[in-house]
Amino acid sequence: MMISDQELEQAKARLLSGQISLRQLSVSMNIDRDALKNMIKEICTPEEEQSLQEILLDNKASCVVELDEKVKKIIIQILKGEISARQASEMYGIDRETLRRKAEELANSSPEYIQYYIRYKSKRGDFSGINFRRLFIEMIEDGMSQTEIAEKYEIPTRTMSRELEKIGRSNDKYDEELYNIAKIYAEKMMKKQKLTGYEISLYHRILAEIKENSQFITIDCEPAEERKFRELQEFKAKVKQLEDQGMTRQQIATKLGVGISTIRRRLLDLEEQEGLKEKKAPSNPEEPDGRE
């Protein structure tokens, strides 16, 4: 979204006067919060930039709620649609805006929670608050195509493409790096070209640097290898359940929104990983060998 110099000056004035928070501004202007902060900083005088830093720190300090197990359970209830944010706020005495922010943080912490959040937001036709940077990093790290990552999180492919272009327009250097490698990677996947060992090493080094220097929430995150294995197991269980209901592979593919080849490939991937885990499993020294 393009904004004029006048709009940016007005946004700066409202923020510095305390009329609105940075989060509220980013939502109302439909601009990524960090990108908007950087844009405003660029037009600030040194004195205004100092005031801006103090305001942002005050905002952060005034709305801290620890994401303990109780709050996490409340948020999961909201994301699953079991209770509304208004009801949760009234029942537990937690500000609604704080609940929404914590829901966003929890959602971007792991695949399980972000899937709840995406379903919750998609009912309203709204994908704001989703950390698409994390999704594109996961796409590259797990060897998925842009279509596959979109299918996994039930996000329209067009939305994924649009969000990648937004990242490309960011002034942040790490966003620029992520955009460049994601575009190159997606093109290779479309052409069914394998990455070279050098490219894989380069991509993982750049992604590690991006994650280290970006605000990524890491609540209850699983290692990528374990997460992929768990998700493949869950996928196999879904396929088995539908097969037990008498559905054909074509019907299952349609039901899950994937191609038959995707089902075949994921099941083969799981079989291969299960074989590797069996080889790595230590033998049991306590197991009897039949001798007295």
Plain-language structure description:
This protein is mainly alpha-helical and 292 residues long. It has helices at 5-16, 22-29, 33-42, 46-62, 69-79, 85-92, 96-107, 111-122, 132-141, 146-152, 157-168, 173-190, 197-212, 224-244, 249-256, 260-280. Helices cover 70% and strands 0% of the residues. Among the domains are: 9-62, no CATH class; 128-218, no CATH class; 224-279. It has 16 helices and no strands. 17% of the residues are buried. The model is unreliable at 60-66, 215-222 and 285-292 (pLDDT under 50).
Biggest pleated-sheet summary: none
Share of residues in helices: 55-70%
Helix/strand-derived class?
Answer: mainly alpha
Tell me the total number of β-strands. 0
Strand content: under 5%
Count of discrete alpha- or pi-helical segments spanning 4 or more residues:
16
- Radius of gyration from the alpha-carbon trace, in angstroms: 23 Å
Instruction: Calculate the terminal CA-CA distance, rounded to whole Å.
Output: 78 Å
Helix-strand pattern, N to C? HHHHHHHHHHHHHHHH
Mean pLDDT across all residues, rounded?
76
Shape: globular
Low-confidence stretches: 60-66, 215-222, 285-292
